[in-house]
Fold these 2 entries.
Entry 1:
Amino acid sequence: MADRNTPRYTVPSLTPQQGAKVAAILQERLNSLTDLHLTLKHVHWNVVGPHFIAVHEMLDPQVDAVRAMTDAIAERIATLGTSPVGTPGALVAARTWDDYSLRRASAIEHLGALDEVYEGVITAHRKAAKDTESLDDVTNDLLIGHLHELELFHWFVRAHLESAGGELSTAGATTEKGAAQKAAAGARATSTRSAGAKAAPKTAPKTASKAPAKTAAARTSSAKTTTARKKK
Ligand SMILES: [Fe+2]
């Protein structure tokens, strides 16, 4: 007897069972991206402090693009002959992750947490693309297309967390709150460094003209401070 999730028909060249399998993979991606565009809007509303407007305005095109992805996924599920589920209760019952954990917070904290969010979404989306590769080229192409945009958006977020040396302040974080804390600490360290760099030219000429030994001592002290900051 046919499973209630097995469609009566599906796209040409797939069996109904294959259609059901692809649709199940897509339903999970529909849940994930519906959650993502709601989360991005939540951040758009809850970001505060310096850089508010940059992050607030950066997120709306991402919300629109991710929402368009959910529409394409849901319509592909219907095309495969099954019913896409888009209600909030079903999403919450089916998802395997927690709600986004930050409320009102600074731009850099939300960006740190969003790095973690995009990491999870993209990893799962790549797996779904891999899982449909030999099953359904059209679905695979759809998911690969999403990844082009999702990974671009992830870079937009990460560029705020990256040092001139290419290091991410959120490296090693495993939770949204942990990533938010690391991002905030990284931003504080960067602003302290740049404040130090601005102050340095005022004192350097005096030191240099009076005694070269003091200049050397200042360099040592500055190097120690840099090392201490790196350990945080
Ligand atoms: Fe808005």
Note: Strands lie at 47-48, 105-106.
Entry 2:
Amino acid sequence: MANLVPFWLLLSALLAPFASGDWNILRPKKSHLDLGDSLKVYCESWRVNVELNNVKGFEVVPQECISHIKKYMTSSQYTADSERAIEEVKLYLSTCCNLEGDGTDAWIFDVDDTLLSNIPFYKKHGFGGEKLNETDIEEWMRSSKAPALEHTLKLFNLIRDKGIKVFLISSRGEDLRSPTVDNLIQVGFHGWSALTLRGLEDEGKEVQKYKIKARQRLVDEGYHIWGIVGDQWSSFEGLPTADRRFKLPNSMYYVA
Ligand SMILES: *[C@@H]1O[C@H](CO)[C@@H](O)[C@H](O)[C@H]1NC(C)=O
């Protein structure tokens, strides 16, 4: 031990000029990170933890992260992340399933931000940075103007063409059935087996519980649910579930 002392003395002497303030050799100041960079790191970490379902039930995107979320949701990264998720579904479908082939094979899709993109709406409402106004979003949904998420549309067609029945389970209300169907058809979705929307008896119920009930009904009818594609954790959690669940990115809102 004693023979180490001169080394430490030498080291302290060498470092003395840098030893001002709170500088510490083990914790050097991150001078290479300016404020913008550290905000970007902070907001990206928030976004990833939303996807991981660690950040739950947020009402609005944190104000300081609105521009980060806007950048992400309109970036080629968002498109690539969504496409990758769909590629993984295709990979799964190519090997996974001994399809029953008797009309009992089933697949579930969410509607909003899974089949239809609400980005044009959120673009006008701070990308989730504004508290959602029910009147405004319903008006948007009634306009039937949401574009398709193109990669999900291709997957939808592939699954349906395999003879798997496609079930759409959405947290939209039953009163939006007609504009929702119009919107889906206009952008190219055809041939689903049923569209489940929230009726009066499901109003006020947590979306997760409503979706569990919808899946239970399919299982009771004898369906084998091979997979779910959705953008919300409330579409996956609870039993019965599907063999696999595929999450699309969405950091603009959280449906509990
Ligand atoms: C929601 O938006 C409408 C107009 O689109 C407005 O009249 C109403 O006050 C808003 N509601 C809330 C709670 O902000």
Note: DSSP finds nine helices and five strands in the chain.
